Amino acid sequence: MILPIVAYGDPVLRKVGKEIDADYPELTTLIANMKETMYNAHGVGLAAPQIGKAIRLFVIDATPFSEDEDLSEEDKKSLADFKHVFINAKIIEENGDEWAFNEGCLSIPDIREDVFRPEEITIEYQDENFEKHTQTLNGLAARVFQHEYDHIEGILFTDKLSTLKKRLIKKKLENISKGKINAEYRMRFPNLKRK
């Protein structure tokens, strides 16, 4: 089932997600719905807060990036099979220089800005079977993970922008929270007056 994506301004996007266990109600259905919602919106990642659930769960399928001709062969290779469910994820180490890449977010349509992030991270997470994994990610794979990880920490990519950039997009952000946006997918807006 395709779920509405929560828009900028909704308090759930600012909550730190709670850890879950294998007894979380209807988890398999939730994961399937999140994947379907992500694909419908042409996203490469979707975190549970973006569908209104403050839990430590996100899905990523960055394989479409692997066909981008502008990427290095190393990035293409790392993204070719970067398709995972991440439960209770943690970043345990960050390495390398921070580098800029133009990011967007399904909860913040029509805004894209350069964001600086570390080039390499080591992570721990559980998969959908609650098996534990430790993995080192580089380049774009690390970036996509960090973007989704921020969601379960209550952080948005716009928080990482300079004060000037934040001022420049302030009106756009207000309009998104009021539903004054034409997204190509279902959204839920926090500041729409319900009758």
UniProtKB/TrEMBL annotation:
It catalyses: N-terminal N-formyl-L-methionyl-[peptide] + H2O = N-terminal L-methionyl-[peptide] + formate. Its EC number is 3.5.1.88. The active site is at residue 148. Its cofactor is Fe(2+). One of its GO terms (biological process) is translation. It holds the Pfam family Pep_deformylase. Belongs to the polypeptide deformylase family. This is Peptide deformylase. It comes from Polaribacter pacificus. The gene is def.
